[in-house]
Amino acid sequence: MWRCTPADMPKKRQNASLVLRDRSNGATLFRWLYDEIRTAIVDGRLSPGSRLPSTRSVASQYRVARGTVVAAFDQLAAEGYVESTVGNGTFVRRMLPESLLGARSVGRASLSARGRLLAENPFPYLCANRSVETFRLDRPALDAFPTRLWSRIAARGLRSSAPRLLAHGEILGFRPLREAVAAHVGLTRGVKCTADQVVITTGTQQSLDLITRLVLDPGDRVWVEDPGYAGATWLLRASGAEVIGVPVDAEGIDSDAGRRRCRSAKFAYVTPGCQFPLGMGMSLRRRLALLQWAREEGAWIFEDDYDSQLRFSGRPLAALQSLDTGGCVIYSNTFNKMLFPALRLGFLVVPPTLVDAVAAARSVLDRFPSVPDQATLADFISEGYLDQHMRRMCELYTARFDALVRCAQRRIKDVMELSPVGAGLQIVGWLAKGIDENEACRRAAERGVDSVALSKFAIDRSMPPALVLGVACADIRAIRSGVERLGHTLREL
After folding, report:
1. Is the alpha carbon torsion for 468, 473, 479, 483 positive or negative?
2. What is the pLDDT of residues 255-282, one digit of tens each?
3. Where are the alpha helices (DSSP H) in 284-384?
4. What is the distance between the alpha carbons of residues 430 and 85, in angstroms, rounded to a whole number?
5. Domains of the chain: residue spans and CATH
6. Which of 40, 105, 111, 420 could bridge 45 with an S-S bond, Cβ 3.0-4.6 Å?
7. How many other CB atoms sit within 10 Å of the CB of residue 360?
8. What are phi and psi of 122, to 5 degrees?
């Protein structure tokens, strides 16, 4: 039933003019009528107290069923935009819902200090053109992933354990996956841990965000490799931390330079297994120096071990965490680079002193990742398929890197020199004198070649002009074609 108008409402009043815009594709007649009339009321084109045309006249004017018009008017009345009584008509209410909520009388809601930092520090795309495949920095070889095998494992898991996999998960992650991860990183990376120290996340960004919430306060100073991973730099800034860029050289991060710049930092983000983006490993001397600094200052070290298993010569270096005797290293890795980005599964290995705090924080923030995906990955690891896949990927990526280096030596040595690299999915190409790296990046993207200017990863340091290229996702034919196009671009500059 429609509500009655006030007693002093005049019985005879000129109907308001009702002009509706054309119906957009896909909108139902009811939704179109409702939205148009509601918008006219909220915008003030139908003023408070004005009378709407009758449902019959609206139906006739716009050639819709009268029942549709009645339904739209009923909805507006139920939400408090209009009021009506039989024989008197339908009127725009004098006190609208927006008025009652104060939407027109107060200032716009504002972001918090943390919200402003997040808005000012978005995660930059690590590509110049997201439609381009050649030399994409953020993509592994998806064409080589064993999709059918993964599908069979996933289907088998759901058939055999559907109720358990569809229920709530564990806060720290699916227990069989945590056990498989602990065994895997112990064998392949020398990481010392039990399954109770493993925390399943969606990847490096979530892992770093979780830890910074627990160990950093706004204004705390943190060391970050310079140049370094831009995603970590922006996340730390967004958390309110003061980022201190610490230079890297052929041995990795220079702790002595870090001490001179800011001895009392509370946190360090490092990539010791395969420095991003330059690709070198951290020497034993530098690892021990970094651990010594952390012990002296009571600081945390976040070890991002993202690509260290993808090594093209010799055995991978053991993780920094394997040398830690003081419980200051937080180890992080991701399966999104090892397998495929859409998987959204990574993990942390935290010191025993942090486990309870991480579990409590996780229970508040996001509970747990998808359980079926965790179960599939657990079987993929425990049945030996991850090791097989990584061996195949090392062979494939070695062939692709070799093809790039040989082709670059023959075709573009006059305009770009590639750095030697022993691991990882990216390589740095140093540009000839006089070539602007940002312009080179832009023009190369127009020719279907992706790259990122090295300066995008710098914090305070001034680096020679260079492009960072991803090699994993392009086959050898695409690499050769990409080098040709890149050469044409660079010579024009």
Report:
1. negative
2. 999 999 999 999 999 999 999 999 999 9
3. 284-297, 335-338, 355-365, 371-382
4. 78
5. 1-107 (1.10.10.10), 117-124+145-387 (3.40.640.10), 389-492 (3.90.1150.10)
6. 40
7. 12
8. -70, 155
